[in-house]
Amino acid sequence: MTQPLPQTVKGDSASERLQALGLKLPVLAGTTYLVPHRTVGSTIHLSGQLPFKDSELLGQGVVGRDVELETAQELARHAALNALAAAAQAVGDLDRVRIVQMLVFVASTPDFGQQSNVANAASELLIEVLGENGRHARTAIGVAGLPLNTPVEIQVVCTAV
Known about the structure:
The chain is α+β, with helices and mostly antiparallel strands. The chain has helices spanning 14-20, 69-91, 115-130, and strands at 37-40, 43-46, 52-53, 56-57, 97-107, 137-143, 152-160. The strands form two sheets. A five-stranded mixed β-sheet has the order 1-2-7-5-6, with helices on one face. Strands 3-4 form a two-stranded antiparallel sheet.
C-alpha cells in the first residue's frame, strides 16, 4: 500500500513552517573531533546527528527490543531537526537549504525490518519544513549499535539554493 506524500505545512518560508510545527532550530556546536558540517564544492556534508534536545539525548536502546517504532520515529524527527540546524548554519538561511541525500541508521534487532518506517518520520519533517527542497534520496540501515546507545543517527548531504 502506497502512503500519501507528506504535505508542506502552511507558511511562506521554511522558518515560518518550522514555527507552525511548534519547532525551532537548536544551536549546534562542534567538538574537538568534528564540526557540524563541511562544504566541498557546492555539496555540504553534515555530521551524523543524534536525537539531542537541549544537550540531552532523548532516548537509548535498540528498536524492536527496548524502543517502540513510534518512539524511534520521534527520535528520528529530532535528529532530522538537528540536521536542519546544521544545514541552516552551513548555508546561512533555512530557506536556502536543499536536501540531496539522507542516510538513516537505526540500532535495531535483526528481525525488526522497519528501518524505512523509522526513516519516514525524518523524511516527513524535512518535506513539511522545506517543501520540494526537502525531498531527497534516502537509505535506511539497521545496525547493531550507535554512539551513546542511541536508537537513531541521521547523516545528510545537502546543497544551497
